[in-house]
Amino acid sequence: MAHTRQPASGTLAGLLRRVLPPPALCGFLVLLVLVFAVSYAVGRSVGPVAPGMHGPGITQDGHEGGGTDVEDDDMGGMNHGSGH
Questions:
Q1: Cα 4 to the chain's mean position, in Å?
Q2: Rounded CA gap, 51 and 22, in Å?
Q3: pLDDT by residue for the chain (84 residues), tens digit each?
Q4: Cβ-contact 65, 57 below 8 angstroms
Q5: Which terminus of the chain is less hemmed in, N or C, by CB atoms within 10 Å?
Q6: What predicted TM-score, i.e. pTM, was given to this entire model?
Q7: Alpha carbon distance 24, 19 (integer Å)
C-alpha cells in the first residue's frame, strides 16, 4: 500500500493553509474590488448626473438655510392654494 506524504500541521505550509481564506474567496474579493474600481473610474470621468442639484439646506444663491418661501423657487409666481 502506497502512503502519500502529507505535510505536518506544524509546518509553515500547513499554518498558511489554516490562516488564509480559500483561493476562490480571494479571487472573488479581488474581482469585486476590480469591478468597484472600474465603476468608480467611469462615474468620475462622466461627471455628476444632476449638476444643479444640491442637498437639503442650501439655497440657489449658495447660502445655508434652505428657506421655504415659494417666491424664491424656480417657479416663482405660482402661489399654492390661491384658488385659481
A1: 49
A2: 44
A3: 566 665 555 688 888 888 888 999 999 999 999 999 999 999 999 887 777 776 676 565 655 554 555 455 566 666 666 555
A4: yes
A5: N
A6: 0.44
A7: 15
